Amino acid sequence: MTLPTLHDLHRPLGSTGLMVSPLGLGTVKLGRDQGVKYPSGFTIPDDQIARMLLNQARQLGINLIDTAPAYGTSEERLGPLLRGQRQDWVIVSKVGEEFEAGQSRFDFSAAHTRFSVERSLKRLETDFIDLVLVHSDGNDLHILEHTDVYQTLAELKAEGKIRGFGFSGKTVAGGLKALQTGDCAMVTYNLNEQAEREVLDYAAQHGKGVLVKKALASGHACLAPGVDPVRASFQLLFDHPGVASAIVGTINPLHLSHNVATAAAVILRN
Q1: pTM value?
Q2: Cα separation of 201 and 127, whole Å?
Q3: 3-state secondary structure string across 133-155
Q4: Which residues are catalytic?
Q5: Burial of 148 (0-12, 13-18, 19+ CB in 10 A)
Q6: What mean pLDDT comes out for the span 13-34?
C-alpha cells in the first residue's frame, strides 16, 4: 500500500502567488536547542541527518520550509543543505528577533530589518526570500503602528528581495492589523489554543495567507484514549478555509512520515 503524499495537494498562500504544501517543515531544531519549549530534549542533527530529513520532506511533497535568524544556525545550515534545490522550496524567514548567548532581543528598526534580510539572503544563498515575517515580541500593535518594520518589508518586496511579507504575532488585534497591509499572518491555532480563529476568518474572507504555528501544540496535544492527536489536530486545521499550511518542526523521520500521511488523508477525506 502506497501512503498518500502532499505533491498534488499544494494550495495558494493567499494572493501571494505562492503555492505551498499544507504542511511546512519548521527548522528551529536544525539550529537551536536552547530556550525552546518542547516536551522532551533533542540533539541538533548533523549535516548528513539534516540532509536526509530535507530530502525526505521533499519526496513527501513538502515544499515549504520555515526558518529565522532567531533559530540559531538554522539559516546558515540551510544555505548549503539546499544548494541546487532553490526551485523546489518556498522559503519563509523572519526579522525582528535575534537570539544570542541564550537570550532573545528584538529590533524592529528600518536599518535592522534591512540588515537582517540582506544577511538572510547571504546565509540562505539565494537572491530572494519567498516570505519574510515579523517575529513579534508580543507587542503586536505597537510594532505595526510605531516601528518601521512593515514599511521596510514593503520596500524590500518592491525591490524584489522578498516576494511577500507578513507577521508572526501573538494577538488577534495584531493578526488582523497585519493582514490589512501585509500578505500573510502566522498564528497559533491548535486543539488547546483557538483564540486567534478570528484572524483565520478574516484571511479566508479577504484572500490573505495564513500559516499556523504550534499546530500540534508543540507536542503537548492530549486527547481521550484511542484518539490520534495528530489526526485530530489536522482535522481542526484543515476544516478551516483560511489555513494554507501548518508548520511542523520535527527532526524525526517517522514523525514526519506520519504527519504527512495523516494530513493527506484528512485533506483528501474533506
Answers
A1: 0.95
A2: 34
A3: EEECCCCHHHHHHHCCHHHHHHH
A4: 71
A5: middle
A6: 95
